Structures are given as C-alpha cells and as structure tokens.
Amino acid sequence: MKLPAGLSFAIALTATISAAEAAEQCRFIEARAEREACYQRQEAARAARQKAQEAQQAAQPKPYEPMTSEDAQLARSLRSICRGC
Predict the structure, then answer these.
(1) Residue 85 counted as domain residue
(2) DSSP-H helix ranges across the chain
(3) Which of 5, 16, 20, 26 could cysteine-pair with 38, CB 3.0–4.6 Å?
(4) How far apart are CA 37 and CA 41, in angstroms?
(5) Where does the pLDDT of residue 41 fall: very low under 50, low under 70, confident under 90, or very high at 90 and above?
(6) What is the pLDDT of residues 47-67, one digit of tens each?
C-alpha cells in the first residue's frame, strides 16, 4: 500500500523538477537563433496558459451582482432622509 503512494509521489516530484528545468534551459543554448526560438516557444506557451486562465476566470460566476441604477437611486433617497439624526 505504501509502495504505490511512494512511487506516485516520486513521479510527481520528478515531473515538477523536469518542468522547472525545461523553463530554464534556454539560457544555456549557445547559438543565438536557437536560444531566441526557445524563448519564443516559452513565450507562446506562457501566453496560452495565461489565455486559458483568463477564460477560466471569465467562466466563473461573479460572487455578487453589481449595483443597479435603481439601487443607487434608493441609496441616495435613504441618505437624504436623515443626516445625522
């Protein structure tokens, strides 16, 4: 029972480390054209992740309803009834 859990933890740790290394490998490429191509690929991947994250946030419902003009008018009338009574 402990062996499968330990193996899955090791695999997850290895995947995390390899993902971090993949992000840093561009600066070690000596050829300028290849290095810039690597940076462009990383930028495209980052833009895709950001776009997906923005789409996910837009899909989530808003936690509150914005104040309507009727609510604003009611609040103004209530404030005008009594000022510091």
Answers:
(1) no
(2) 2-24, 32-59, 69-81
(3) 26
(4) 6
(5) very high
(6) 999 999 999 988 887 767 677
- Is 33 inside a domain boundary? yes
Question: Which tokens sit at 45?
Answer: 């991947």
Please, is 11 exposed, middle or buried when counting C-beta atoms within 10 Å of its C-beta (0-12, 13-18, 19+)? exposed
Instruction: Supply the DSSP symbol for 25.
Output: G
**CA-derived radius of gyration, the chain:** 27
Does the global pTM surpass 0.90? no
Whether residue 8 is contained in a domain is answered as no
Counted domains in the chain = 1
Is the sign of the CA dihedral 75, 76, 77, 78 positive or negative?
positive
Lookup: tokens for 32 = 């300028």
